[in-house]
Write a structure and sequence with these properties.
The protein is of the alpha+beta class. The protein contains seven helices and five strands; from the N terminus they run E-H-H-H-H-H-E-E-H-E-E-H. InterPro entries: Plavaka.
């Protein structure tokens, strides 16, 4: 007995598509492609957003560190759990700093590099809202700054939907299915208007 198909309201052949992957028709062309910079005379209001170190990254993808090895050591020191004291003791071992040729000699200097060189998250801003004579604190971040950070980070690249798609029940494309925002009519129409 198939328990999934016994849900109320999901009876008959017509609802079988709910249990299958949709047939996807991508918009095609350059939809969702990365735009590095607006071209000459480009009237597109969505110019490239920079999140910090774009010039440095063109020459060194491991910036603000000078090499992949230095980046790996810094990542290990900050994510794998050695205490600051243990990491400092490791770096203080005679010959370690010379052998590794690091641009930092202790945890304090590593933290300074991270705090001053890497892009920061948008700051929270406090607003006071009055409701029925009572004052309430409202903390928020600028939505556009948050979007710039999300779109500027490679961590989220595989999860962000940036191109419209049409989803259908099957290859006949007779019954359209709507789910995420990028499957709606608006994204498709807007992409047609913005195509250049």
């Amino acid at each position: 007995m198939d328990v999934e198909r016994e849900l109320p309201g999901l009876e008959g052949v017509d609802e079988d598509f709910l249990f299958n992957e949709p047939y996807v028709v991508p918009f095609g062309g350059g939809a969702g492609a990365t735009v590095m910079a607006p071209g000459p005379g480009d009237k597109n209001p969505f110019a490239r957003y920079e999140v910090g170190m774009s010039e440095v990254l063109e020459t060194n993808v491991f910036a603000p560190f000078k090499s992949k090895m230095e980046w790996c050591i810094a990542r290990w020191a900050k994510t794998r759990g050695p205490s600051a004291t243990a990491f400092n003791e490791f770096l203080a071992i005679n010959g370690v700093l010379d052998a590794l040729q690091l641009s930092f000699k202790n945890t304090k200097e590593l933290n300074k590099i991270l705090d001053s060189s890497l892009p920061t998250r948008p700051k929270f801003v406090r607003h006071v809202v009055k409701v029925d004579g009572e004052e309430y604190d409202l903390w928020l971040r600028d939505a556009m700054q948050c979007i710039r950070v999300l779109f500027g980070s490679s961590d989220w690249a595989a999860d962000i939907l940036v191109a419209p798609e049409k989803h259908y029940v099957d290859q006949t494309k007779t019954t359209r299915v709507y789910g995420d925002m990028n499957t709606g009519e608006w994204w498709w129409r807007l992409q047609v208007c913005q195509s250049f």
